[in-house]
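Forwarding the complex inputs:
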Amino acid sequence: MTIKIKDGFVLRKIGASYMAVPFGARANEVKGMISLSESGYLLWKAIQGGTDTVEGLVEVLRKEYDVPEEIADRDIRAFLDGLLQQGVLAE
Amino acid sequence: MNDFEGLKGLMPDFEINLLSLRQSAIEERFPLSMTWELTPYCNFSCPMCYVHLTPEMARKKGTMLTADQWLELGRQFSEMGLLLVNLTGGEPLTRPDFWEIYEGLCRMGIFVAVFTNGYIVDEKVVERFKEMPPRFVKVSVYGGCNETYEKMCGVKNGFTRVCHALDLLKEAGIPISLTSTIVKENQDDLPLIVQMAKEKDITIQTTDTVMTTARGAASDPANSRLENTRVQKMTLEDLKKYRHEPVASMLEECGSYGRAASITWHGHLQLCNFFEHEYVQVSSPINAEELWKQFFAVTDAIRKPPECADCPDAEFCHVCPGALASASGYADRLSPDVCVDAALAHKRYNELMAAEAAEAAEAAESAEDAGTCRE
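Prediction (whole assembly, two chains):
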């Protein structure tokens, strides 16, 4: 599976909060903002930067966080499922 | 290497709490929200407006910021935390480059609200809003019929056109709210205005608070505003809540201080739109970090007027620097106009307290009499 975030989101850090703000047509699909944790922000940024596999994201996450590979893999898949359900990921 | 916060922290949350963002903006002093007055020009000429200028007046006061400057401000302030921008005027939609500014800000991940009189909101405008939805559109309503619009704003078919605009916006699913300032010229229309809002199922806020125009607008609010009856309508309970410890700084009465600001059409970065003298001038090249620092230096220097120190009505005073600026031209200079409410509230509070005490004494006396009878 190739992972890609749909166009129309701006990733932002405001104060201590991380979020993705939809604009244009995307704002009609996703109301309000998507709040992210620091690691969620990191992954989103990596996906927007071209990392398009779970393996690649596991590597990104493990470079920053002390987390076993299997936990990172499981959590990233859950994160991607969440984004897919909300219509954030391009199918 | 950082500790991993686990699945719960990683999962996206599709709601974000603006209140907590406001709190952190105040604590960290970043510009979460701003009101940008894009133009002093308007297609209406309302008697109570504090912004509207003629081209000649505007030329004497300054130069309008360009679209590039507004967008650069958006870019730099968004890096500092700017999330909410209200675009207002004058009538912001009269700017030929309105869409360039509006859409540019939306693309930066800023939630943009548009304040308009609705008169030039037609099918084309609504189509653009559909393509790039605003956070909301706030429409000022000036009357409940075309005659009042003509008398008050100097435009033909105003009510019909604004109603049509509201229908279009509603049909397009654009969030709308209405606001209406009630003055002498439209006071008889209040029931019609409220009825229209009700029929269209749109929230409306009405106010009869009209500030004077220290900013030198081409209008005459002092003659237009209604007699202030707000305090006279307050109950004793209201007044008990209204009473407070006198504030050390008038900035405590400001809802924007610390997290919000305004930028006028000529680039005055200031605490609120009513200010005339306490501002930092935006100029190119724009350095938002420096502007924000200077803005706080100017704002924090606003002191309580010395006359307030021994004011007997201080516990009933809710005057903010914006009200002072509006009345006297300066955010720290007193004008007798702004002291009226506190004096009235204090007087009414004392009268109502005395009436309550008399009533209680009478009740106690009656009870005593009844007790004596039983004995």
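Residues 9-85 of chain A form one domain.
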